[in-house]
Amino acid sequence: MTTPKPLLEVFTGEKPRTVKGRVRKLDDKELRRDVITVLKMYAEMCRGAMLSGRTPQQRTVIELGHLPDPALSPNKRLHYMELYRAKDAAKQEAAALVLAQGKPPRPYETAHITITWVAKDKRRRDTDNLFSSMKASIDGLVAVGLLLDDDAMRVSYTLRYERGTRDNTIIVVEEL
Predict the structure, then answer these.
(1) For residue range 36-69, what is the model confidence (pLDDT) as tens digits?
(2) Counting C-beta atoms within 10 Å of the first and last residue's C-beta, which end of the chain has fewer, N or C?
């Protein structure tokens, strides 16, 4: 039986000391915190995959760089055309980010999506409202061909909310 590699080596292909050294050398403290947050998230996902006995076949990471548009909140009452424009913009943004990094050769038939919202302020937000605001973005992943479909039998979700130095939404799609 082979011994498992350290988690950072699994995700980066480098020895953990090398990765940690590169993170320490980053000048910008905010960027360093963001990199550490992403590395911790990857390590936790890998640990969960190892405990469940499966290894992720493919993974796509999408960073929106902002929180979901408040116009997409289910609590917002908008004119139907304003709501349509907001949904279309979110869908197009998600599709463009997938195409920019290259979509896989075939759509993921079943997937696990981890959505992490990082907020720079201390306001409390409901994750159910944030999640419903992400529907248009997830539909964009289906439209571009990353996911075969986003129904309950094909996709599972993990939702996280964290505080950070800048607003961000990180969507990690793992093929199962």
Answers:
(1) 777 777 667 666 555 544 444 689 999 999 999 9
(2) N
